[in-house]
Amino acid sequence: MHPVLKLVAQRIALSTLLLLAASVLIFVGTTILPGDVAQQILGQSATPESLANLRAELGLNDPAVTRYLAWLGAALQGDLGTALTNGRDIAESLGQRLGNTMFLAFWAAVISVPLAIFLGLLAVRFRDRWPDKLISGVTLASISIPEFLIGYVLMYFFAVKLGWAPSVAMINDSMSVWQKLNAIALPVGVLTLVVLAHMMRMTRAAILNVMQSAYIETAELKGLSTFSVIRRHAFPNAVAPIVNVVMLNLAYLVVGVVVIEVVFVYPGMGQYLVDHVAKRDVPVVQACGLVFAAVYIGLNMIADIVSILANPRLRHPK
Amino acid sequence: MRIPLAALIGLFFTALYFLMAIFAPLIAPYGMAEIVGDVWEPSSSRFLLGTDSIGRDLLSRMIYGGRTTIWIATMATALSFITGSVLAFLAAVTGGWVDQALSRFVDLIMSIPSLIFALVVLSVMPVTVTVLIVVMGLLDATRVYRLARAVAVDITVMDYVEAARLRGEKTMWIIFREILPNALSPLIAEMGLRFIFMVLFVSTLSFLGLGVQPPQADWGGIVKENKEGIVYGIPAALVPAFAIATLAISVNLVADWILNRTTSLKGGRG
Amino acid sequence: MTDPLLKVRGLKIGATIYPPGEKPRDIEIVHGVDFDLAPGKVLGLIGESGAGKSTIGLSSMAYGRGGVEITGGEVWVNGRDILKSRLRDVRALRGGEVTYVSQSAAASFNPAKKIMEQVIEAAVGHGKFSRRDAEERAVGLFRKLGLPEPETIGNRYPHQVSGGQLQRCMTALALCPEPDLVVFDEPTTALDVTTQIDVLAAIKEAIRDTGVAALYITHDLAVVAQVSDDIMVLRMGETVEYGPVDQIINAPQQDYTRALVSVRSIRHEEKSPGTDPVLRVGSVTARYKGTAFDVLHDVNVELHPGQTLAVVGESGSGKSTLARVITGLLPPSEGQIDFAGRVLSPDLKGRSIEDLRELQMIYQMADVAMNPRQTVGTIIGRPLEFYFGLRGAEKQKRIKELLDEIEMGDGFIDRYPAELSGGQKQRVCIARALAAKPRMIICDEVTSALDPLVADGILKLLLELQKIEDVAYLFITHDLATVRAIADSIAVMHRGKVVRYGPKSKVLAPPFDDYTDLLLSSVPEMKLGWLEDVIANRRMESAGN
């Protein structure tokens, strides 16, 4: 087998293993710790008998390993159980909400990725001059403000004061794509701002790293035009680190979504998770945690695989 | 020693916030949960920042809230630093399976975003200040571990550490005299960044209703309490934004300065 | 006289430096330099690091590296002042009329592109050759430069060929567009000595055959003497001496040049071995954990009190591993080490404080051998405190004595390593080793990171101290000139084995084994025509075989 394929296969296997371990961690985190689902459901006034009955019904008396294997086996077949609070099938509710979240994240990525790369290039082009300094200043500010506050500031000015966009982002299936886009304009804007700064800064660093290599100097000393130097020598080497940056930031975006959905009352996974954490609905929390972990691990895996594929040393071994 | 202007500004505001947190009961014009006026009164001489969603003085709540937020963030940072760096130094100096086991475990924890992990854990834990500090501190310890281990490993391969080993120095001497003095500056700078992260983290949790519980005030909670007002054009919920941002930027400026100042001592090839 | 191809007048070069914690400052690094270079001639630029030689070389392409900027003077190439030219014309010159060969070909080739594409890029880009002609020309150059498989080597990626081969590819890259001038910037410095001679010969032949002019930049006077017609000696951005190679080598006018020429002329009389060796390495074989081959194989050497054993070899020969085995950092898989009449524990943990004290070590990079957070006083004082329990005034007195011994004086006690020059740092490391009053010191490439004159001073100091303290040195180095200067006995290492061992006079006298012959004959000598002699000799030998 080609060594690159071997490395990629290893990476995929490792990520699968990691996800499996993460599922153990999530399960352990929600079952071993003090606090009991039965108690949560029935409240403080529950009688010991009814508690015991419910525990037996929920299978809480089985050993943890048995419960974990049952949970994982069901999850692998797409059965995430039923919510304690309303008795609905979790996989069904989750599927719809995951779709909504992906819709939001997708548009945020579509806007922020090209913008961040463009601004990163701009920062490199005007390195140490005012555009660069402005960009790093904005970066400092934006990593210092929590996402939800950016959300409310934007909502306050654009939705309330200027009335350009709705302040809550309710969407449903009967809306046209255009109506949906209008509804999510503000949350997309906030998410873009949240990841933009990071992505820009990391893109800048990645490009600068390439531009300071000796082979760029060689290209310049060949008398090539700036454009040729970038196209033929900088770009092929900068693609991998930039894709890496993008993937890491998309992973970051997935987390940012949780908070932003709450701010704009958007019917996505984040809000679903937060609501059910407050209601202590453990099966839902486990399912959401697993999905988030899978997305996060998956994006990190893609970043690693791109680095492997783009490395000429691995692609063309000795 | 000359302190650059940016660092001075950072130091000033950082000190200001910490002093406000410590002396909150002396400074705050009203009590933390005292209802003293109407709902969402605008700024006036009585209420400098106006009142909140149920008529409490917003300035007083901000001051007490800062106290809670800064206290939790400081304790969580301390916990994450002590746990993270002690384990990291142990891993770096011992090496072998201790290092492997710790590092793989940290990889695992970091494979789940910390906010998601915190939410998962908080779904079954009683939400108290202590629980918050422990959960946030331990989750963040993984980040500190990564950095501290990298720094320590960089130092342990230095010839001067080898020279100390060849001289016959004990492990403790090597950790405290050779490694620690050189690891301190990046760690202190990182501590600033971790503190900011903790402020943001606890504020986010409180905002989601899963952090500090009312009636106790904290900055994230104040946003949550007043967020309905935004739609009516009442900016009370934005006040903590200003506080969090200025505190975070100030600490950042100080951390930057410490890092710059100390790297110059590290002695390159000059 | 023909018109010069390159005429430089009053060249001044400045740079912006960014001292940490301070405002950026502009400094001048070249203060007005003049020289001429006729077509087809080679000018050697020589100087220590910081002399400004690379900067001057790049100015012939109107290029400043990093924050470097040409601030004054004129640079005429083919009758045009390129400093006043438009960027478009400068680009036509770069890679067309003037080309560049850097020190590290490994870093200078784009890792993502095939070698051929990069070699012909400038020639095709400047419209000098069609793609097909350029490729043909490149293959011809590959052949001339002695690269294996010249037809297909261009299809490989840079990481798929060795360092020495890549350096030749870089030379092909520079010669491909038929330039008038090539700037060679330390092209052989990063190579092992046996590789260096081949690359050097290839470069010299290519220069001669193509009739191109060259600026040859190096810190090694013996190297530059082999390829140049003229030599310019630079120091701290100023010309020290400028003249024909014969005059510079054989009749230098300036003290500085004289010092450079005579730098390897330390005379050291070989001492006859006494009876009991202080160190005996007996049949040592060693390998690193997790690897399948022996880095050291059946090594046997002895070192006598007050003498110097030089362990010489190229990178990867196992010489530094030998030091690790002796110090106990890498326990050998077989064999034992006797030290001062007792058997040393193979592992560092099993050694007594006395063992550790009597066996000290000095490192190649003095920078990282001293804790940057400790003052010179602390660094030298620690062994005094640790081994002898000295405190207070007594310790201070001894530190001062040691500082005097290394010719630095007690003004340095409170300085930090970052405030010292490279040579001073190494001296402090020597003092730290001496503080333990050792029987033996392992010196691991202690002079190879230093400029030649500074290195010379360190060697003289070491010899001086050996007389006073009667300490034995195990001297690890790749530099044969250093070996000649200080050794009493020599062990030549190659691929983990000692291939030749004995008193200096015997090891350095024929008949030689193949490897030692190759190694010895590859070391550049400060003699005109040396390169030709060696190459001619080697050809004769291989013809005779």
Labels describing this entry:
heterotrimer; A: 318 residues; mainly alpha; 78% helix; globular; B: mainly alpha; 10 helices; disordered C terminus
Set out the fold topology:
The complex is a heterotrimer of chains A (318), B (270) and C (545).
Chain A: H1 3-31, H2 37-42, H3 48-58, H4 64-76, H5 90-125, H6 130-144, H7 147-161, H8 177-183, H9 185-211, H10 214-221, H11 226-263, H12 269-278, H13 282-310, H14 312-315
Chain B: H1 5-22, H2 24-27, H3 58-94, H4 96-110, H5 114-122, H6 129-156, H7 159-167, H8 171-207, H9 219-231, H10 239-263
Chain C: E1 6-17, E2 25-37, E3 42-46, H1 53-59, E4 68-77, E5 80-81, H2 87-93, E6 98-101, H3 105-108, H4 115-125, H5 131-144, H6 163-175, E7 181-185, H7 193-210, E8 213-218, H8 221-227, E9 230-235, E10 238-244, H9 245-250, H10 255-261, E11 279-286, E12 296-303, E13 308-312, H11 319-327, E14 334-339, E15 342-343, H12 353-358, E16 359-362, H13 366-369, H14 376-388, H15 392-405, H16 422-435, E17 440-444, H17 452-469, E18 472-477, H18 480-486, E19 489-494, E20 497-503, H19 504-507, H20 514-522, H21 530-544
Parallel strand pairs in C: 3-8, 3-9, 6-7, 7-8, 13-18, 13-19, 16-17, 17-18
Antiparallel strand pairs in C: 1-2, 1-4, 4-5, 9-10, 11-12, 11-14, 14-15, 19-20
Helix pairs in contact in C: 4-5, 4-6, 6-7, 14-15, 14-16, 15-16, 16-17
